[in-house]
What does this fold into?
Amino acid sequence: MHPTPQIVFTARGLTKTYHMGEVEVPALRALDLEIREGEFVVLLGPSGSGKSTLLNILGGLDTPSSGEACWRDHNLASANERELTEYRRDHVGFVFQFYNLISSLTVRENVALVTEIAPQPMRPEEALERVGLAHRLDHFPSQLSGGEQQRVAIARAIAKRPDVLLCDEPTGALDYETGKVVLEVIARINQELGTTAVVITHNASIAGMADRVMRMADGRIASVEKNPHKLSPSELSW
It folds into this structure.
């Protein structure tokens, strides 16, 4: 029997409340979760359900109002800004809906920005080869399609060999066929490198490729479903 993968993320009683003047807006309400090493998890839910807030806390971009959020044995809820910066640099790759590429830099240079600060990076050329863009190294973002730009963003995220890849609506700005190509890349990184992948989406069809699906509503995990028959992205339809 294979050993059970270690738990890498734990949340207990996690809350996040935003203050808009005198109004309090709860984004997370006493949320609990566990995510294991190497899992592909989809966080599914409508806008306003708390998905992005949760992802930002797991990624060290935001801190909770109360409760516990841990990466392995590191308590993200009580970490200071220097500790969160080191955590993001050493362990987390981010992929957002919008690609955040620097227009004046080539594809290779955009990826190299990350490899220069990571402790054990892969070469930019290797990262770009993994996302199928070895032939685009010296192009600028304006010379690429939306799907190609998103793959550059993924290459940039994985070039530092992160333990976890956090993806916020990675296909949200893409058409159906291009979105499937991007999902294929994320799935391949998860399988080949063993990178824990957490993808948030409002698109229920994407849930078919996950090991587990966590459905969010009103700032809580409403249900957790194991997926016994994972689909490849090419088999998805939405």
Remarks:
- The two ends are 36 Å apart (CA to CA).
